[in-house]
Give the backbone structure.
Amino acid sequence: MALFQCNMFSESIFSSTTVNVILPTPNEGAEPGGRNKQYPKDGEKYQVLYLLHGFSGDYSDWQRNSGIERYAQERRVAVVMPSGGNSFYQNLPSGANYSDFILEELPAFVQGVFPISAKREHTFIAGLSMGGYGALLSALRKPQQYAAMASLSGALWKLDEYFRAVTEADLVFPVTKPLCHAFGADFARYDHTTCDLATMLQNAVDGGVELPKLYQCCGTGDFLYESNLEFKALAETLDIDYTYEEGSGAHDFDFWDPYIRRVLDWLPLTGGFVD
């Protein structure tokens, strides 16, 4: 396994940002003189998983808190982990266009610098919590770019209704202010056709869009568990390639670490180079 910490200037965000990239390497952990030491030849690429962090996190969260390096090496898939701030992976009024960064600029960067495939069938996106929302949002906004999308404990179900209820109940919830930054006060910029995952998923199916396959999981002790069940209830009524799993656990890496392995096992990985 090789880990690259890339410090780059992003025109979309109009700021420097950091991205971690994992590339599998030959013979990781092998005895001397063992397996083939082949690196990618001209034209050979790695499949890639874009892996998004949650609220208040950054590019290093998955690296520091899970075994993603080992899992990627075992399955021979590249993993790209960007920073998304607390943007909910939206284009912000400030001009920090995180959606454009994830959908356009970041893939162009990593495909230009690393042996990473640009083909849809080799490209996947996943995330936890806010990143689960961001992963599905990105794949639904640009379904022709991804073969699979996955949410781990994602903030998936009607964010405007959920957080208005939190606000009206006068609950102390530190995500409220960043949500206003991302979507506007009282969710004025929350356009259901471009921001609400349930609406976007239903509209895509009704429009005959070829969607990526969808994986969703959540811990039964997670504060987002009930809203994940509501999204599951919708997804199961639709004619899509859909997998749902749950298990004991809360909103933390004790749950996300084993389940990112399940995501990787679910993905259509080849275990080697692709053209």
DSSP finds ten helices and eight strands in the chain. Strands lie at 2-10, 15-23, 48-52, 78-82, 123-128, 148-152, 213-219, 242-247. The CA atoms of residues 41 and 273 lie 9 Å apart.
